[in-house]
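Note to self: keep these together.
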Amino acid sequence: MAAQRSSPEQHGDRYTRLASNTVVFAISNFSSKLLTFLVKPFLSHVIKETSVMGVVNLAQQCANLLIPFVSLGVSGSIIRFGLDKGCSKKQVFTNGLLTIFLGYAIMLLCTPLLRLMPTMAQYNVLIYIYVLTSCLRSLCTQFVRSRQMNRLIAIDGVLCTFSTVMLYVLFLVVFKLGANGYLMAIILGDLLSAMFLFAVAGLGKYIDFTHINRRLWGEMLRFSLPMIPAQISFWIINASDVFYLKYMCDGYGGLTGDDWSGLISAGYWMPTILNTLGLIFYEAWQLSAMTEEKERERFFSKVFRMYSGVLFCCAAGIIWLCQPMMHIFRSNFQQAWMFVPFLTIAAIFTCFNQFFNSIYVIYKRSTNALYTMVAGAAVNCFFNYFFIIWWGPVGATPSSLLGLFTVFLLRAVNTRGMLRVDFRPARMAVNIGMLLCEAFLLLLGAPHAFLWCGLLTALVIAYNFGSVWAMARVLLPKVFGRRGRALTAKVDGLLGARRPRT
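Structure:
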């Protein structure tokens, strides 16, 4: 018997659910990422030296490196198995908690080795606590998300942001604790968030150490363990630049390695906008990708085209405005704009890679995520060394782009055996080409570069208008209700009966 085709109403429902979840997660993440966006300029005025900013960034990156080892990559298992109707949520949460405790005990046993890492000797106690609170918050957040308590996640995001802002002010402005205060604010913010979710979502009733399902625990670990080297590889692509600059650029341009590490940390400021959009979308998309089973290929392809169009337009604007926007920072941080163009394009591929990773999650192919990320990390490390030798500190950014682009190519090809996503390669190549033109115009200091980049930005927006409007007409009614529906109807009327193609 032929498979029954889904009706237009069903199609509408799936896009409406995706839009609704996106709005909820936007509320949750926007406030916290807005904090990240505002904190960087704030830190440049409070932590006045670029070298100190570099040390702070190194300490945070050391903690981020340890988190996958301690959690054993279990956060991905929590949401994947938590959404599985055949699994006991109590057993999923208990297994996740046991996994973190086990990983943390192993980390403590490895203390003598860990002290060999940069900045670990100076900040080891804070970094250990940072890792634990981050893992616990991630566990609680992912489990609450698996229960689809999305509004609670949104409330937690707002409260966590508010508390962290207050802690930044207390530790950095009032007590002037510098790097220690920065780490302490993050630690307490994560701890308060975990406690809030644990209490309000009643997570205590999901802990049962007397009936541990070893078979399920084994399945969760088989799914999550390949995530460890995958997450480490992702960390290498995104954080290795800091270490390369510290040790290869000491004395370059009269600045120390820590100065350059601090500058590239500031350079990540504007690409954070794209990473925020990607995170908001991915958290909503995970739920739709795993629960929407009809006509998946068509659904994935259409959503990817809309999503990519929005990312390309945002990236074009970020590259265009990176020089004037960096004036928000303290004067000795402003030259960090040179890192922005290629980091912004790299952020696009980070978002694309997350999208394709959802296919691995659906089909429980975490080993595929592993080898694609390892390949990208290897490409990044290889080109980092040579590009920095040839082009100086700015060479670290195109190597990150190449690493993430490698991951994207491998995943785009590899996932076709599971689910074929039509991402329109020719259209993507045109968009990337225009963004690269913008980047080179700025970095080479071309005459009237700001004007030319503005024209290229307008061209990118015009080229992707159909995709952007297709997403906007789904989101606007969810955000603004009746006014949103009236606005979409009016714009559709101006565009004519035929809607723009995506």
